[in-house]
Specification:
heterodimer, A: mainly beta, seven-stranded mixed sheet, globular, B: 110 residues, mainly beta, 59% strand
Chain lengths: 117, 110
Amino acid sequence: QLQLQESGPGLVKPSETLSLTCTVSGGSISSSSYYWGWIRQPPGKGLEWIGSIYYSGSTYYNPSLKSRVTISVDTSKNQFSLKLSSVTAADTAVYYCARHWSTIDYWGQGTLVTVSS
Amino acid sequence: EIVLTQSPGTLSLSPGERATLSCRASQSVSSSYLAWYQQKPGQAPRLLIYGASSRATGIPDRFSGSGSGTDFTLTISRLEPEDFAVYYCQQYGSSPPKLTFGGGTKVEIK
């Protein structure tokens, strides 16, 4: 059974860079034709796709966040990571990592990241 | 850019009643790439329906999806207590790859 687990700081200061890692277990991140993505959900609000990385390494980002987002993969550790720069309070959200192609079939449990000084 | 609009925002119903949730796209989308998720408080969303009308593994048959083009519907035939949750539709765009979510419909106990 595939499992995804987010990790990283729960508190980030305004203007700094948010960094999260998703560790995949129960399957190889590079062995299948899937995207590995990040989705976020501000408290009490809906879901927003941040971006994804294909198993080959190609990246795709939400145009609204593209200038601040970097997603990378470390196949040796079976992990992929998110970096979101110049954060503000509006970036406070639960951040989920997920596996998808046209639909998301596996989700991490989510991690709350609060942007505050 | 495709926008998904879900209605109503909140649906107040009693157990045993039928729930009909709407997802309208700003332009035609492929039925193959339209999905529905259920989210309960404190949990990650769970895939219910993919390809507009196919139930995901383990999803009860009281959940059904339909629609095409710009109008899609999720129907829960008889609400069970565990069905009270928020439901999201999602569309996949392939060129370039992108996921788009609707704003969600909350199904609450009346």
